[in-house]
């Protein structure tokens, strides 16, 4: 199972890098979303995969039964997803605003902050 | 008691942020921000004095024991950095009274500013790797908001570059954390120090390199610095001052922490790589600055160049070199924030930051010219200012290791810095204004004038004090370096006596 | 987006979602649930309302500015954390109050953890709605 997840992480990263090499900023953003999901999967897999054993404590017990899934990577992934959600929502609005003000999504044409040198 | 004192600076910043939010429609928010920053500085000072008298402090959040819960740790370096954060926050929040427009205040400038300060402080104080990631994100979200606040077209452009490259950096950092957890099963930095020693060294080196790249983007080292000069000259002046002072330095701090406490098993590779990165950073930064004609863009490239010196200190990895890096960190935050504040006043009275379009500042505003010269000379490393001692220690450390080329590069970059500073001096201050006006400080309203000049004067005084009486500051930096290079005290403070852990 | 079916279904679903979100919030201490997921479900309710009636109407229905809700939640969570100081336990240590406790029965347990969770609920609700409304009005 870990092997399959590792393959998936690799595929996601490859697709993300391909997208991020594009000049279109929106494609770049999609690439970022893919690579952040790859990172989340990576954390999830690196904590070890334990199917069908949720880390729940039965009513009246003090500790979960042995052999349950590791809850920490799940908590980390959840935190990372939430933060990523906020950041990407912001980035999407930013790209949209930039498109409105500059009229382009081509990163080569975005030279307002760094104007080209006059010869 | 340290349980209260450690989280106090972070709490103060958060409470100030919440209060400033509810009063954002009026003028109260700016005074809340100033008062909050002052309180935070006092709390940070108390923390530093406690660390200096009683040694390293650690507090377990929620009373969960060390490797399991989140630990806050203040060693000498952390405490010093928190104090510097407080000083910068106070200076910039006073400056913001005169600089920030009411529109920006109404959309919550002061709230975001204080959240940024909370994030920076949290990053300095945490002893948990994932918590460090969370503070980085807190900082990042606040800085995104501050960067595009005002909504000028050029800010949108800068925002896209800043946001995308910083997102890549955090994703690399996050993947590094995930892999490190997979290898060691812990996220507590002190615990990692022990667990990493049992792990596969090749795997750890790969992870260390991932961290190096992630933090490298954050701290803008060669060849990953492009976002910085593209972004730092666009937002409001108080925003770019706090960015220039603090944000990249958090990356350097994280590098210093991780590459002294955790990743020390393959120093030949990680620190050797850092050495050449540092030299390349110094040189490209200063050469980039030579080609610029905008006040803030010149300064932005100099941030890159100065980051090289700090990374150099870490890369040399001797007690003297790390002392120099810590000293440089402190000196640089004060000086660089101050120069950006000066650029703000220049913009207000002369109408631009493009140094070809302004002039006559020496004639019209000799006080400002004097206040510019102090941090500018300090940046270039003139004795007896703070920058001289910082550079001196680092050059001495590289000479001790017989790295002649590195020492020569460090000295040459200092000379090139003088070139950039004289360029600003000659074109912005010395030559007459092309519009045939004489810019004068008296064109500012009295309140704004005081609010903008007081922090500049205060930071300049601090630079002079550090320059004239360097012994106590070097003493503290030496202690910080000792804490970093011999982590026994750190480990004991967090986890208890080393025998009990092993 | 303003088809009759959506509007009629929304009337039913919004109330249900909000109740479900509070149930999730309260059950969260020992079972799957909690302030975070509760806040998300609550936000879904208002987002559904915004889809059916427009974000302006949703803002009116919410009555309070979502940013204010998020900030109030952050304040509440911080207060719950500070409560750990009162008995000298340190920041974010949970404090418990057992109402009507006897020798055998622990009564109704109330804790600062619940207050913290309510704070998280408000932060998530406010932050998500801020973002979604901004996106909807922007794009």
Automatic annotation (TrEMBL), chain A:
Q: Which organism is it from?
A: Jannaschia donghaensis
Determine if Cell membrane is one of this entry's keywords: yes
Q: Gene3D superfamilies this protein is in? A: 1.10.287.3510
Give the residue spans that cross the bilayer.
Answer: 6-22, 29-51, 71-96
InterPro entries tied to this protein: CPA3_antiporter_subunitC (IPR050601), NUOK/Mnh_C1-like (IPR039428)
Q: What are the protein's UniProt keywords?
A: Cell membrane, Membrane, Transmembrane, Transmembrane helix
Q: Which subcellular locations apply to this protein?
A: Cell membrane
| Protein name per its UniProtKB record | Multiple resistance and pH homeostasis protein C
> Per the record, a Pfam family?
Oxidored_q2
The topology of this chain with respect to the membrane is: Multi-pass membrane protein
Q: Which family does it belong to?
A: Belongs to the CPA3 antiporters (TC 2.A.63) subunit C family.
Q: Which GO terms describe its cellular component?
A: plasma membrane
Q: What is the lineage of its organism?
A: Bacteria, Pseudomonadati, Pseudomonadota, Alphaproteobacteria, Rhodobacterales
**Where does this chain mainly localize?**
membrane
Automatic annotation (TrEMBL), chain B:
Q: Which UniProt keywords apply?
A: Cell membrane, Membrane, Transmembrane, Transmembrane helix
Lineage: superkingdom: Bacteria
Q: Where are the transmembrane segments?
A: 6-24, 31-52, 64-95, 107-126, 132-150, 162-183, 203-228, 235-256, 268-291, 298-320, 367-389, 401-421, 450-469
One MF term in the entry's GO annotations: NADH dehydrogenase (ubiquinone) activity
Q: How does it sit in the membrane?
A: Multi-pass membrane protein
A single Gene Ontology CC annotation of this entry is: plasma membrane
Is Transmembrane tagged as a keyword?
Answer: yes
Q: What is its main location?
A: membrane
Q: Which residues form the NADH:quinone oxidoreductase/Mrp antiporter transmembrane domain?
A: 127-413
Output the GO biological process annotations, alphabetical, semicolon-separated.
ATP synthesis coupled electron transport
What the entry lists under InterPro entries is as follows: CPA3_Na-H_Antiporter_D, NADH_UbQ_OxRdtase, ND/Mrp_TM
* Pfam families referenced in this protein's UniProt entry, alphabetically: Proton_antipo_M
Cellular location(s) = Cell membrane; Membrane
Q: Which family does the entry's similarity section mention?
A: Belongs to the CPA3 antiporters (TC 2.A.63) subunit D family.
- What PANTHER family does the annotation carry? NA(+)_H(+) ANTIPORTER SUBUNIT D1, NADH DEHYDROGENASE
Q: Function, please?
A: NDH-1 shuttles electrons from NADH, via FMN and iron-sulfur (Fe-S) centers, to quinones in the respiratory chain. The immediate electron acceptor for the enzyme in this species is believed to be ubiquinone. Couples the redox reaction to proton translocation (for every two electrons transferred, four hydrogen ions are translocated across the cytoplasmic membrane), and thus conserves the redox energy in a proton gradient.
Q: What is this protein called?
A: Multiple resistance and pH homeostasis protein D
Which organism encodes this protein?
A: Jannaschia donghaensis
Species lineage, top-down?
Bacteria, Pseudomonadati, Pseudomonadota, Alphaproteobacteria, Rhodobacterales
From TrEMBL, chain C:
Q: Which residues cross the membrane?
A: 12-29, 35-52, 73-98, 110-135
Residue ranges of domain Na+/H+ antiporter MnhB subunit-related protein in the record: 5-130
What InterPro entries has UniProt attached to this entry? CPA3_antiporter_subunitB, MnhB
- Transmembrane helix: is it a keyword of this entry? yes
* Top-level taxonomic group: Bacteria
How is this protein situated with respect to the membrane?
Multi-pass membrane protein
State the GO CC annotations: plasma membrane
Indicate what this protein is called per its UniProt record: Multiple resistance and pH homeostasis protein B
Tell me the organism: Jannaschia donghaensis
